């Protein structure tokens, strides 16, 4: 159990492993330890941006569906990768409020 009194008050962060494969027609990008988080782009910088966005989208989808996020695996590795690096997912809680429709008196 986490002792919330000693816990850092900042947002929680998970560190996943990103890999990039540079191909003649662009860059393939994938989060090795988060299935389905993939992207591609013309350059490595663009691939980094698109992959970060894909990771956020996949994480949000998991949470909205009530599914747990995959556990990061710091040992994840793809021998075909040209570049491997950490990719950070920052988690923060928000609340969404919506006005309830007015009910007519019965």
Q: How does this structure look, described?
A:
There is one protein chain. This protein has one helix at residues 44-64; strands spanning 12-23, 26-31, 38-41, 83-91. It is of the alpha+beta class. The protein has a domain at 24-91: Double Stranded RNA Binding Domain. Strands 3-2-1-4 form a 4-stranded antiparallel beta sheet, covered by helices on one side.
Helix content: 10-25%
Count of helical segments? 1
**What percent of residues are in strands?**
25-35%
Averaged pLDDT, please? Answer: 85
Across the major sheet, the strand order is 3-2-1-4
Return the string of H and E elements. EEEHE
- Reported CATH architecture of the domain at 24-91: 2-Layer Sandwich
Q: For the terminal residues, how far apart are their CA atoms?
A: 48 Å
- Global geometry: globular
- Give the CATH class of the domain at 24-91: Alpha Beta
Radius of gyration: 19 Å
Pick out the low-confidence regions: 1-7
Report the major sheet: 4 strands, antiparallel
At the third CATH level, what is the topology name of the domain at 24-91?
Double Stranded RNA Binding Domain
Report the strand count.
4
Strand pairing plus helix content: what structural class? Answer: alpha+beta
Task: Give the gist of this structure.
The chain is an alpha+beta fold and 106 residues long. It is built from 1 helix and 4 strands, in the order βββαβ.
Features:
single chain; 106 residues; alpha+beta; 1 helix; 4 strands; globular
Blueprint of the fold:
Layout: E1 12-23, E2 26-31, E3 38-41, H1 44-64, E4 83-91
